[in-house]
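Example noted here:
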Amino acid sequence: ASGLAGIAAGNIDQVMVGAMLHDGLSYVAFYAVAMFLAGVITIPARALLQPAMPLLAEAWRKRDEAKINMLYHRTSCIQLVVSAFIFLCLWANADALFTFLKPEYAVGKPVMYVLGLAQVVNMATGLGAGIIATSRSYWFDAVSGAVYLVLNIVLDYLFLLWWGIIGVAWSTFLAVVAIVVWRVVFLHRKFGLWPFDGKTARALAVVLALGAAYWFLPHYGPPVLDIAWRSLLLAGAYWGLVQVLDIAPELGAQARKVIAPLW
């Protein structure tokens, strides 16, 4: 039920956009492109989920709550750092990216921002959904997924009437935030697990600071060149701050293992 809810939500968004807006099929195209770009943020989480789920299942079998809490905390920090970086790349290069599309697709730019932010919020809880799915309270994963789907449909209808295509993005954002908060609170009350600490606050500070800086940073050159120099500057500043502030030491350790043989 949880998996079906996640798949259905994005498709229902597009169906409602097509059905409720004037010239709805055109807006479906704009929304689909924005949703695809925002969906890039989830790629690292999918890669992380594959090896982590068996570890979670084994930890539950052994009642190793310390290991579960460690996995919850570490994956939360890592996914927040990586997903926020991809979101900042989209944020910094949105103007240049949309020049490759027809001008009317620019209406999807704010949609991409909101959907991307929703993905970051979802990723920031690490393996929270996986922990619930592999526990004896797996039923809650299905229930929360079903509630998410219903909430998303209701908000889609209301926000489409009020704000049009951007309303659909905000309905998804609010539904994601509500379900994520519900799951975090459930895990804390049921198992005493909590994914956030001072590193989370430092990561958010870095994201906000660089996001604000790039809002005022001027563009230079043709789109491809503009994307290249802005992305390189962002990567240097972002990962430099992540390393200096010791936000995700596991990522630094893995990077050194990969680079070491090359020297």
In short: Residues 65-98 form the longest helix (34 residues). The chain has a mean pLDDT of 89.
